[in-house]
Design a protein that fits this description.
Number of domains: 1
Helix content: over 70%
Strand content: under 5%
Low-confidence stretches: none
Order of helices and strands: HHHHHHHHHHHH
Distance between the termini: 48 Å
Mean pLDDT: 83
């Protein structure tokens, strides 16, 4: 009786938290193994940071704070945007095209668990990005404000920024063809990088800065700069990110197609 009770099969799904964690680990490994995803996640943000700090004089960057202190938080925001929006949109669109989402939706992992795994993978990759970019920034002379408020501001900015951009990325991936998503996500990334006030503060954009501060990129960049430059929590910018997250989630829920 003892041997039968120990070795008899016990079919059934694993607990939901364990399934979500396993899905997050798999999603993060797939993301980091993909050369294009790794380029967006780490290589481009690091190149932007080194190039802007090294070429500050030629670019005419002049602020009250050292350029590296202004640019590094913006590059951290860029890294969050690249992973939670561009990478997620492209990967999800092609998973949808090849029927991966349809098959996963029929597995014991519920669709809410699948989305939870994707968000967990984003946070794991973003933690790696913040570490790498933070180390590079330190080597370039970055001196961030370290306080409880700055840590709280960072955490809130990353969580709300990830939520906002992930919702927008899934909205794009679930409503457009894979090729269209690839083009649109990369175009949006370049436009927000150049004019979305993510790397540079809104004050660098003149009159357009009043518009850029309401974009998710501008709100995320300003929230990160407030945390690291002033040790403050940028509540207005966090509310903007929350608004984008709610609107994006509602639109995604209504339009997302799993196949």
């Amino acid at each position: 009786m003892t041997s039968q009770s120990v070795f008899s099969p016990a079919p059934g799904a694993a607990p939901l938290p364990r399934m979500v964690l396993a899905q997050a680990r798999m999603e993060s490994r797939l993301m980091l193994r993909n050369g294009e995803q790794l380029l967006l996640a780490v290589v481009i943000p690091v190149l932007v940071l080194v190039g802007m700090v090294g070429g500050a004089d030629r670019l005419g960057l002049d602020y009250d704070h050292p350029v590296v202190d202004v640019v590094t938080p913006g590059v951290l925001a860029l890294a969050v945007m690249s992973t939670s929006f561009t990478s997620l949109a492209i990967a999800t669109a092609f998973e949808r095209r090849y029927g991966v989402l349809k098959r996963l939706g029929a597995s014991p992992l519920p669709r809410s668990g699948l989305l939870g795994g994707k968000v967990g993978a984003l946070l794991l990759v973003e933690a790696m990005q913040l570490l790498v970019i933070g180390v590079v920034g330190q080597l370039l002379g970055w001196d961030p404000v370290a306080s409880a408020s700055s840590v709280a501001g960072l955490v809130l900015a990353v969580l709300l920024g990830t939520s906002a951009f992930a919702a927008l990325g899934l909205l794009m991936a679930g409503s457009l063809r894979a090729e269209a998503t690839l083009a649109a996500a990369n175009l949006a990334y370049l436009l927000l990088l150049a004019g979305g006030a993510v790397v540079l503060p809104v004050s660098a954009y003149g009159g357009f800065g009043h518009v850029a501060q309401w974009l998710p990129s501008g709100a995320l960049g300003e929230a990160m700069r407030s945390a690291f430059l002033d040790g403050a929590i940028a509540w207005r910018d966090l509310v903007v990110l929350l608004g984008w997250a709610l609107v994006g989630t509602a639109a995604t829920t209504r339009t997302f197609s799993w196949e």
